[in-house]
Amino acid sequence: MTNLLLFFGDRSWLFALCVFMILCLRYVIISGGPYLLAWRVFNKKLSSRKIQAEKQRPLRIKAEIMWSLASFAVFSIEAGIMHALFVRGHTRLVTSWDSLPAWENIADLFLLLVIHDAYFYWMHRILHHRHLFRFVHSVHHQSVNPTPFAAFAFHPVEAFLEMAFLIPIILWMPLYLGMLLVFLILSHFFNVIGHLGYEFFPRSTWTSWWGSWNTTSTHHNLHHQHVSSNYGLYCKWWDKLCDTLNPKTETEFFKIKDRLAAEKTEKDPS
Q1: Residue 90 lies inside a defined structural domain of this protein
Q2: How many CA atoms lie within 13 A of 258 on its CB side?
Q3: Which is more confidently placed, 53 or 106?
Q4: Which of the chain's ends, N or C, has fewer CB atoms near its CB within 10 Å?
Q5: CA distances from 91 to 1, 79, 266 (A)
């Protein structure tokens, strides 16, 4: 992995270009795949799981994709900056699993998720200030009924802020590059879940101990419907702590679960 990063040398612009191509490919797989399956192929079979009944307009989906491509361009520039810092020896990134204890590598992944969850919540709330919302964050909220393609449909300023927290992270935190890549994939996956438009989490999401803190698709979908609540990404604890959890979240979640249960009973009365 070290050789791969050093292959680009000082040509961080070339590294950024490669990152852009990888982001586009990842987008096709992680966003396009769920959209194709849930919104197209199995849309009738999964209709009871759909959070909002309305269909998304093709022009809105096109806009989601175009804004996402703009976001990837911004992410790639930031990746180029981080690459330049790395090759000049200014970061604390390590490229070998054995450079840090195994427990620390695993712990770092969870630490990244916790830091990102807090960062996202407060950045998100700041972007909902009326001036920032009007000129920046409203781009994302044009998708009232978002599809997985909306996961990265940001204004360039918001796109920059989305990735900016990683720069100080790699400057001060010893971190295995592989764990950073896993984190980026996980964050994309969770972002797609929030914009999926379908609820696949089991009823135990709310009735079990772990359900008291994690979010589901319904959580962020409601944020797109009612913009002044449900700012969290991975967890509900910041929303609960700051009293920004939409009281309809649990109700809407169970409404879908009850609909599925009734459908199952109808098909199999026994």
Answers
A1: yes
A2: 6
A3: 106
A4: C
A5: 16, 13, 59
